[in-house]
Amino acid sequence: MGFAKDSFKWDELTITRGIVETFMSDFLDSIDLDVAVVGAGPSGITAARILANEGHKVGIFERNLQIGGGIWGGGMLFPRIAVEQEAAWLMEEVGIRLREWEDGTVIADAVESATKMTAAAIDAGARILVGIEAEDVVVDDDNRVCGVVINWGAVSGAGLHVDPLAVHAKVVIDGTGHPCELSRLVETRVPGACIDNLFECIPGEASMNARAGEAALIENTREVYPGLIVSGMAANAISKSYRMGAIFGGMLLSGQKAAQIASEIVKSRS
Ligand code: 48H
User: Fold this and answer.
1) 103 in a domain, yes or no?
2) Which of 63, 156, 230, 252 to mutate to test the pocket of ligand 1 (most atoms within 8 A of CB)?
3) In this structure, is residue 247 part of a structural domain?
4) Could you tell me which of 36, 52, 85, 243 has the fewest CB atoms within 10 Å of its CB?
């Protein structure tokens, strides 16, 4: 884009209008989505990228200001993550450099992983909304999940009583990690959500068994309630499957599976 070099007429109001007007217009264009992803950890960001690449209208709602969830912390703050070789392609396709490691694993830099996954999701067309949290789900007359109730993350942080707004989506992905927040909300608030006992008691994940936890993650990634898919650590937390520590291949493959399920649901509802 060719920008003029001598247009110095701007002042503080130029900045203010530029920020508010462009954000409002982008935000209003993101309130009726194909897929709302809640939580921008590795599973959510991978699901969003794949869905956006397929041409779906995807919004990611992340309560923090940064994207990447648990990737940034690596293992015990050592900024490296391990990934199984069978999931390495999901890193390579966004340009993350991998070091071959032992016994079928690769190692990646945590900062490079979080930033390149984020950049690839943005380039694919995913709308990333930071500082916004999902505090509830929206349901239709059949109690199917059809959107999320949103508020600024800072509002809950400050303990303010501020009523929320809402967005619609054909399907919602719970990528909220260990607390599996959206699934818990559905369990506790949506009338009749305990019908199949799935949500009778969400216990949280089991202690560490990395290989078993990674294997279970893919199986546990599913539509847990009409209109709500669970991905990543939330999927294992719901099913009391093992945790796995700082190995992330399962999160990426879970995001990929969540995207496949979401894509089918979107097509069936279009
Ligand atoms: C908006 C929200 C809300 C909300 C939460 O924890 P994450 O990194 O999620 P996953 O499942 O993609 O990855 C899990 C992985 O990072 C991990 O924790 C592992 C491998 N643990 C193994 C072990 O043994 O401990 O990211 C979830 C994101 C975070 O950024 C939250 O801020 C965000 O979701 N979030 N955003 N509205 N209600 N709840």
Assistant:
1) no
2) 63
3) no
4) 85
Does the beta carbon of 227 lie inside 6 Å of ligand 1? Answer: no
Whether residue 74 lies inside any domain: the answer is: no
pLDDT in tens, 94-141: 999 999 999 999 999 999 999 999 999 999 999 999 999 999 999 999
- 244 within 8 A of 213, measured Cβ to Cβ: yes
Q: Is 153 in the pocket of ligand 1 (CB under 6 A)?
A: no
Q: What's the total number of domains in the chain?
A: 1
Three-state SS for 91-131 is: HHCCCCCCEECCCCEEEEEHHHHHHHHHHHHHHHCCEEEEC
Closest residue by Cα to atom 22, ligand 1, is 245
- pLDDT 10s digits, 190-242: 887 763 445 555 678 899 999 999 999 999 999 999 999 999 999 999 888 99
Of residues 255, 221, 258, 250, the one with CA closest to residue 238: 221
In a domain, 104, yes or no: no
CATH code assigned at 162: 3.50.50.60
